[in-house]
Specification:
GO molecular function, one term: zinc ion binding
Number of strands: 33
CATH superfamily of one domain: tricorn interacting facor f3 domain
Bound molecules: (3S)-3-amino-4-(1H-indol-3-yl)butanoic acid, zinc ion
InterPro entries: Aminopeptidase_N-like_N, Aminopeptidase_N-like_N_sf, PepN_Ig-like_sf, Peptidase_M1, Peptidase_M1_dom, Peptidase_M1_pepN, Peptidase_M1_pepN_C, Peptidase_M1_pepN_C_sf
Organism: Hartmannibacter diazotrophicus
CATH topology of one domain: Immunoglobulin-like
Enzyme class: hydrolase
Structural class: alpha+beta
CATH architecture of one domain: Sandwich
Keywords: Aminopeptidase, Hydrolase, Metal-binding, Metalloprotease, Protease, Zinc
Strand order of the largest sheet: 6-5-9-3-2-12-15-14
Helix content: 40-55%
Distance between the termini: 17 Å
Strand content: 15-25%
Largest sheet: 8 strands, mixed
């Protein structure tokens, strides 16, 4: 199959103004009758064939203006339908297709999950339901009639507002009709039919519109949907106050399903969710789960404006809705919780997921220009870097102009299928700034490196800051141009406060932002009383990789004193990384690991500083992970040496700061009733981080104490934290705890996911056999994406020493599973395969083994387009 190119975009020849869909749902098969109002576009030559997309479709009949089409008038395959010479005047096309949702294991189109009929149409799933112009720039008004057995599907839902419903006389069936007045692309279509429980509520919008809200879940889970409902109402209010955006239908429904390829889907008025992002109570959900639910509920709701009312012209513009909606959900969480803690968490996620993507064979621009399979472009680059680019734009033009630009965008493009150029033009207009160089953020792949050097001249009281940017080659992009980097900064004086200066020359400096837009810039500050320590890239103002060239003692100073919480955390992380990479090198050279005493002292100071938010302190205590260290080292990576260095650092901190950690674990351990709010979650995070570091000391009494806490825990956050500490730190109680956990939660699949993940991440050579055994466990199913991600995904991404074993057995296991999954669910298979992407960074033996595994996958007969695309790009 040929690649799709952005430069080949052209509008469709035909428009489809109205769509009427009739679904006849039966246990054995489903008949779909699609009645399409088709109109030739003005510029289309009369008689131009109408070419509709399909995917594995079975055509039953086709009629044009109610007259059956003869064989000579059309051609149809499972992959498409062409009406050879359509009339020049508007016409109606009636297409009947037959589907078998129960055998749809790809979970795209119409499928069944635990007996519930549900759909997933983004990006190209609608074409698995009926033949259509399945592209985001074809906007239609939909009416949907669903007919199903009353017993199997008492609940019948679709997009828009409900109109009529009733029993079908003389049958065991009923029907419901839904109408969505807002023109939408086919990827936002949704239908759900099943026997579901519901939590109902309502919301009054800022203009007084009454909206009925429903969260549908499996019977018995209603109480676990209450938090999701609360998050929904908070999201609706926040979008009104923060962005002036109001909801626009009479109902808003959310349905939780247990088989889902991604996190959730923003279908108009009918969001469908992976149940992981809906269901929560303190017994089964952790603080992290509550945070995830709040963020994903908000994200999908915010799509109503950024994605649904203003959609994408084509899939290359995916970041138009995803980057912007991630930015919006990040802002929501920052307002609901702690802004600095959210910023640090988001940057950690960006570094762990997006930086490796940008540095490897799968690198692509935030707006790609070419794809083989669009499902493979729902990436951290499109989502997370896409959000970072918008955040950088806000820093560059300022809050006021950013707000004016957003208002202009909503005003001007409501109802459009828009492009990134149109989006950025709104900010150029609102700010009066030429943003053509800024557009490079959308077209150049890779993470820019920002090299920082400085020099202080005491005699003249001048301080010189030299900032140079560079961007290495990425696939199909060898030459790069300098970008616009808004660099937030401060010059930190000896008392820890920011110093004043008289003038700054050599670059545009707006308040505390330096605008770097050339390959190298020297900024000269005058009137600087003494040598400052530069605090650069405060709040991570642009998605770049800073190279500090600073002595450790200066970074330690920032760790203790920087007024910017992000850079305080960053400095702690930089020093820890320095120690860990040095130790890794030492271990490989046959000497021993060490840890800087000054770092230990600064760490102790921060974690015991009661003036600081406990959640922030927990983040400072969380050391870089194995994958972070591997990324920092970059090439010739030996994961065993990294694991050794990390073990040593944790063991040293765990014993040297023993009493401090014990105190924190005790003091911040909450005995009261559980509340998922950010402050309580922060206290638990600090207590559990301290407990975990303490457990790393290997002290048997500590392990015994944690085992007690495991048994006595009154919420899942503390129980899981104890289990992880026991298993990760090789406690003799680990086996018992794992067994108890399984017995306690075997009826709750989402908790079993945690049980699977803890075992997949377990250190030690026995883990691979254990993971293999677990793939045969009754709790595991290769058909359920959550189970697959928890067991196989965790093994491949969160257990580097075992995934990248020196004997290649870890690579082989994951490759085997990818090939098996390829026949069942190619999207999930391709996502798991992405874990190989940094294979060229391993030391030569592992590199060879990983390459062989990738080649074995690439050679599999009937490989899906999804997996082929990832395998081939990884090997290129
Ligand atoms: N917009 C949604 C994307 C999505 C998706 C994409 C491909 C295959 C399955 C999928 N399920 C959901 C999710 C979001 O970003 O909001
Ligand atoms: Zn999204």
């Amino acid at each position: 199959t040929a690649a799709i190119l952005l430069k080949d975009y052209r509008p469709s020849d035909y428009a489809i103004g109205r769509v009427h869909l009739d679904f006849q749902l039966h246990e054995t098969e489903t008949l779909v009758t699609a009645t399409l109002s088709v109109r030739k576009r003005e510029t289309t030559v009369a008689g131009t064939p109408l070419v509709l997309d399909g995917d594995e479709l079975d055509l039953v009949s086709i009629a044009l203006d109610s007259v059956s089409l003869g064989d000579e008038a059309y051609s149809a395959t499972p992959q498409g339908l062409t009406v050879k010479t359509p009339p020049a005047a508007p016409f109606t096309l009636t297409i009947v297709t037959k589907l078998d949702p129960a055998s749809n294991t790809k979970l795209m189109g119409l499928y069944r999950s635990s007996g519930v009929w549900c759909t997933q149409c983004e990006a190209e799933g609608f074409r698995r339901i009926t033949y259509f112009l399945d592209r985001p720039d074809v906007l239609s008004v939909y009416d949907v009639r669903i007919e199903a057995p009353v017993a199997a599907a008492p609940v019948l839902l679709a997009n828009g507002n409900p109109t009529t419903s009733g029993l079908v006389p003389d049958t065991d069936r009923h029907f419901a009709v839904w109408s969505d007045p807002h023109p939408k692309p086919s990827y936002l279509f949704a239908l759900v039919a099943g026997d579901l429980g519901v939590v109902k509520d309502s919301f009054t919008t800022m203009s007084g519109r009454h909206v009925d809200l429903g969260v549908y879940v499996e019977h018995g889970n209603e109480e676990r949907a209450v938090y999701a409902m609360d998050a929904l109402k908070r999201s609706m209010r926040w979008d009104e106050t923060a962005f002036g955006r109001e909801y626009d239908l009479d109902v808003f429904n959310i349905v939780a399903v247990s088989d889902f390829n991604m996190g959730a889907m923003e279908n108009k008025g009918l969001n469908v969710f992976n149940d992981k992002y809906v269901l929560a109570n303190p017994d089964v959900a952790t603080d992290q789960d509550y945070g995830g639910i709040e963020a994903v509920i908000a994200h999908e709701y915010f799509h109503n404006w950024t994605g649904n009312r203003i959609t994408c012209r084509d899939w290359f513009q995916l970041c138009l809705k995803e980057g912007l909606t991630v930015f919006r959900d990040q802002e929501f969480t920052s307002d609901m919780r702690s802004r600095p803690v959210k910023r640090i968490s988001d940057v950690r996620l960006l570094r762990s997921h997006q930086f490796p993507e940008d540095a490897g064979p799968l690198a692509h621009p935030v707006r790609p220009e070419k794809y083989m399979e669009i499902s493979n472009f729902y990436t951290a680059t499109v989502y997370e870097k896409g959000a970072e680019v918008i955040r950088a734009l806000k820093v560059l033009i300022g809050d006021e102009a950013f707000k004016a630009g957003m208002d202009l965008y909503f005003d001007r493009h409501d109802g459009d299928a828009a492009t990134i150029e149109q989006f950025v033009a709104c900010f150029a207009e609102a700010s009066g700034r030429d943003l053509s160089q800024f557009m490079l953020w959308y077209s150049q792949a890779g993470t820019p490196q920002l090299d920082i050097r400085d020099d202080y001249d005491g005699d003249n009281r001048t301080y010189r800051l030299t900032l140079s940017q560079s961007l290495g080659p990425t696939p199909e992009q060898s030459e790069k141009k300098p970008m616009v980097l808004p660099v937030r900064f401060g010059l930190v004086g000896p008392n820890g406060e920011d110093m004043l200066y008289e003038t700054a020359k050599g670059a545009e400096v707006n308040g505390d932002v330096i605008v770097v837009d050339k390959a190298e810039q020297e900024i000269v500050f005058t009137g600087v009383a003494s040598r400052p320590i530069p605090s650069i890239l405060r709040n991570f103002s642009a998605p770049v990789r800073p190279i500090l060239n600073m002595p450790i003692k200066d970074i330690l100073f920032l760790m203790r004193h920087d007024s910017d919480p992000f850079n305080r955390w960053q400095s702690a992380s930089t020093v820890a990384m320095y120690c860990l990479t040095a130790s890794t090198e030492a271990l490989r050279a046959g000497s021993s690991a060490t840890i800087d005493g000054d770092y230990l002292a600064a760490l102790a100071e921060i974690i015991t500083d009661d003036a600081l938010d406990p959640a922030f302190r927990a983040l400072v205590l969380a050391l870089p992970q194995e994958a972070d260290i591997a990324r920092e080292i970059g090439s010739n990576v030996d994961p065993d040496a990294i694991a050794g260095a990390l073990r040593h650092a944790r063991r040293t901190i765990g014993s040297k700061l023993g009493p401090t950690l014990d105190h924190l674990a005790r003091f911040y351990h909450d005995e009261g009733a559980y509340s998922p709010d950010a402050e309580s979650a922060g206290r638990r995070a600090l207590a559990n981080a301290a407990q975990d570091m303490r457990a790393a000391s290997g002290n048997a009494d500590v392990h015994a104490r944690i085992m007690e806490k495991f048994g006595a825990a009154t919420n899942m956050t503390d129980r899981l934290a104890a289990l992880v500490s026991l298993v990760q730190n090789g406690a003799s109680e680990a086996e018992q705890a794992l067994g108890d956990f399984y017995e306690g939660y075997k009826s709750v699949p989402l908790v079993i996911d945690k049980w699977l993940a803890v075992q997949a991440a377990r250190p030690g050579a026995r883990t691979l056999d254990e993971v293999k055994r677990l793939t045969e466990h009754p709790a595991f199913s290769i058909r359920n994406p959550n189970r697959v991600r928890s067991l196989i995904g965790t093994f491949a991404t969160a257990n580097l020493p075992q995934f990248a074993r020196a004997d290649g057995a870890g690579f082989d296991f994951v490759a085997d599973k990818v090939m098996r999954l390829d026949d069942i669910n190619p999207q999930v298979a391709a996502r798991i395969l992405v874990s190989f992407r940094s294979w060229r960074n391993w030391e030569p033996v592992r590199q060879g083994l990983a390459e062989a595994a990738l080649k074995r996958i690439a050679a599999k007969p009937n490989l899906s387009r999804d997996v082929r695309d990832i395998a081939e790009r990884s090997l290129a």
